[in-house]
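ok trying again, last paste got cut off:
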Amino acid sequence: MGVNYKEPTLEPDELTLSLIASGIIRLHETLKNVKAPTLPYPPELQRGLDRLVLLCLRQRKTPPQGVPDLLDWCRKPLAEWPLELPEEAGSADRLLDGQIPTSLCDEWAIISSDIEAELTQKKLLLNVMQVCQSAAIPDSYVAFRRLLISQPVLTSLELVKHGLDPCLERLKDHLNTAYEPAPETYSIDGNFYCCANCGNLMARTEKGDLICGEERDRCQNLGKPGRQIAQREGVYWIKRGIRRFIAAPGRAELRLADKLKELGLDVDLWPNFDSYDLRIVFPDQEVWAIDVKDWVNPFLLANKVKKQNPYIPSDPPWQKAYFVFPDARKQQRADYLRAFNHHCTLPKDIKAKFERDLIKDVKKKLGSIK
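nice, full thing came through this time. structure:
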């Protein structure tokens, strides 16, 4: 949260896609409990459609015939769109998976200033920081983030109990802001089902299968039904921006912190109220800063990172820093690291690596000081 962002500079076709993605996210948020879009459509979606129609006409190609047709386009690979995008921009990916915006859709949305999903979660965390800083309770800030990450779905009673926890009682109102009633469209025969892999709500496909409603790209094979909650208990789910930009990377942050602690290192989560994600201290007192980035598309991530100023804040100070990507991203895309480095040249004291490669560097460092 100590990072400032420059206004993004997008190529014309990138802006068109970003506007459409932004409009899809807004449309999805307004249709949580209904199944068919209604007028008026989000202005970003209409602006993106107008730009796409004009582009198609210039290329003498058939444009989408209105928003419903555009939504059908969004279920097709970007390679089928008449857009000029960088090679690494995810041409095989889609903006919609059925009725659900994909993670890629979120990423295209937030590279422009038109979408509020990311700003919403930033505003929430900034407010939480202010409360915790003024009361000198950094442990409460950490506890608040841990809860969002580890328990994205709560019953109404659980939400009340967490608000009464001594560590979180000052943040009760912020908890109520972070969680919202689960969409009725996710209720199946009077019950909600949580993904056993990530904990988010599951949705039913047209074929009747249960699939993760949030992390589909990673839970496609792992996302089996876990917890079942009766609708009558009152079910709450963290808001979309929080799910995407706090909870999703947060699972990798917590996992990495546990691995580093097992190696005997001192690890602080979100030091100095989230200057970066992990601060690790070696026996010789050398400090490494870790910033976990969990994006589907390395081109979009690079576009976002290179606009950060600074790349990784220097307070608290560190001698070496890393951007770290979950290993699953490499499994999904073998050239992930190459694509990121191609579009974002980092300073010499900051490296980009996958989880397992960071652990190798840590073990090498530990071996050198024994």
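cool. The radius of gyration is 21 Å. The CA atoms of residues 16 and 348 lie 35 Å apart.
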